[in-house]
Amino acid sequence: MEIVLSLLIIICAGVNHSNTGRYRDIASLGGLYQYYYGGANAFTGAEAQKVQQLDDQFYQLKLPPYVYSMACGGALMFYACAMLAIGVFRVPYRFPPLLLAEALLDVLIGLGFIPAIAFYFIKLQEIYNNSICKEREAMYSSKGHRGFECNLNGADVAGGLFGVLGIIIFPISTVLAIRAFIQVRKMKQRPTEDNNL
């Protein structure tokens, strides 16, 4: 579950990171392009350059929270894969205190999700309240284009929901690690049989 959760966080941040949302002035090519993509809804000349400039500035403005989200998701995925590999090779059976270390890390990660989600949404709110975003929204709405509002989009909300899911999943993993530690200790304390068949 931790691997899938980390992957989903990376995907949600990557969707916004990869979307430059830059206006393409196809109508200025003339001919059929002017007919199909032009008209009253197209930006031309200086307006098109201004919109492209605002799009570039907005893209640079919104990058930091998504880059940090992808980095944190990648680090969590590496941790989850490492714990899975350690479990596959039965290292916790040979060295049970490793399960306690895993439980401690899972508690810290679960608690770390709380301020991470708060900072994520605070930073996004600052970005969407920025004058660049407002001016960009006004230019697009003046031509009747929708989808450029200064609001949270679906990937932002989904990333936050997956973060909330992380607050639940990692403490559950803590409980499972502690239960596994108790079971391994019980198995190691059993007397060995004289006749190993």
Automatic annotation (TrEMBL):
Protein name per Swiss-Prot or TrEMBL: MARVEL domain-containing protein
Lineage: Eukaryota, Metazoa, Chordata, Craniata, Vertebrata
Record's signal peptide: 1-17
Locations listed in the record: Membrane
Domain MARVEL residues, every copy: 1-182
Any one cellular-component term (Gene Ontology): membrane
Spans through the membrane: 66-91, 103-122, 161-182
Mode of membrane association: Multi-pass membrane protein
Keywords: Membrane, Signal, Transmembrane, Transmembrane helix
